UniProtKB/TrEMBL annotation:
Belongs to the short-chain dehydrogenases/reductases (SDR) family. GO terms for molecular function: oxidoreductase activity, acting on the CH-OH group of donors, NAD or NADP as acceptor. It comes from Agromyces bracchium. Keywords: Oxidoreductase. Coiled coil: none annotated. This is SDR family oxidoreductase. Gene3D superfamilies: NAD(P)-binding Rossmann-like Domain. The keyword Oxidoreductase applies.
Length: 254
């Protein structure tokens, strides 16, 4: 069997009801994994899971829980484990964006960003990793961003969460490697999704992205799949604590 095959593996992807998470779910299904599709609402997650099964012929299961709520995460992970056992692959993808100049940045937006983008990866990561540690194997992939490394006006708080994701990944590597678990981060450049809809609609911003990215274009969600399959499969068994940028070269050049 190819080192990249995910046949027989189970994956949980948070925030896979749409956007990047949905495309990643499709990619893992096509590589042979069965996938737990997750969102905030059961109806949305079920709809996405059914669509993904139709498209790929793969096996999906839908679940919904709030990733910022400790009790909800604990319950959600318990239900997944009861249904399919502890996932072999966890992708911490759920996230939001809020933009404001630093001097006016609303405290509530700061709290929402930290909770949704960073605390969620800690909570879901801890509860899934406990099961992985008992089994002695697992792959955690945290979704970072070019903003883990590059700042732009108006998104200091978002960048703080994504910089945090990069170091959380290294911390997971330090604490979990001894249990047979690898933790890596996948850092997308600019991709057109609901999260970036306002930026895509802004012609000047789009020109900036195209000029600033050596590849000369926005990312397409399918561009992320190969890197995720690599980090999820045994092909990456000696890769641990790394941030893999899939950004058309944006972070490589000034
Ligand atoms: P979308 O807004 O398209 O999708 C976000 C997903 O996260 C949805 O499935 C949503 O569920 C889920 N979600 C959000 N908040 C919560 C919550 N509190 N509890 C449970 N689920 C939640 O975003 P993208 O697909 O663009 O982004 C996905 C990830 O990729 C994020 O971490 C983002 O920071 C990162 N990223 C995105 C980039 C881009 O250019 N788009 C670039 C770099 C990183 P629901 O459908 O129920 O709302």
């Amino acid at each position: 069997m190819s080192a990249f095959s995910l046949r027989g593996r189970t994956a949980l992807i948070t925030g896979s009801s749409r956007g990047i998470g949905y495309a990643l779910a499709q990619g893992l299904l096509e590589a042979g994994a069965r996938v737990v599709v997750h969102g905030r609402s059961t109806a949305t997650a079920q709809r996405a899971a059914a669509q993904l099964s139709d498209k790929t012929g793969g096996v999906t299961w839908a679940t919904a829980f709030e990733v910022t709520d400790t009790a909800a995460v604990e319950q959600g992970i318990h239900e997944i484990a009861a249904h399919w056992g502890t996932p072999d692959i966890l992708v911490n993808n759920a996230g939001i964006q809020r933009r404001s100049p630093f001097l006016d940045f609303p405290d509530a937006d700061w709290d929402d960003l930290i909770a949704t983008n960073l605390t969620s990866a800690f909570l879901v990561g801890k509860h899934v990793a406990r099961g992985m540690a008992k089994r002695g194997s697992g792959k955690i992939i945290n979704i970072a961003s070019v903003q883990s490394r590059l700042a732009r006006p108006g998104i200091a708080a978002y960048g703080a969460t994504k910089g945090g994701i990069a170091m959380l990944t290294q911390g997971m590597c330090a604490d979990l490697a001894g249990f047979g678990i690898q933790a890596n981060a996948l850092a997308p450049g600019y991709f057109a999704t609901e999260l970036t809809a306002a930026l895509v609609a802004d012609e000047q911003f789009t020109q900036w992205v195209e000029g600033r990215t050596p590849a000369g274009r926005w990312g397409r969600v399918e561009d992320l799949v190969g890197a995720l399959v690599f980090l999820s499969s045994s092909a990456s068994d000696f890769v641990n604590g790394q941030v893999l940028y899939v950004d058309g070269g944006m972070t490589a050049v000034v």
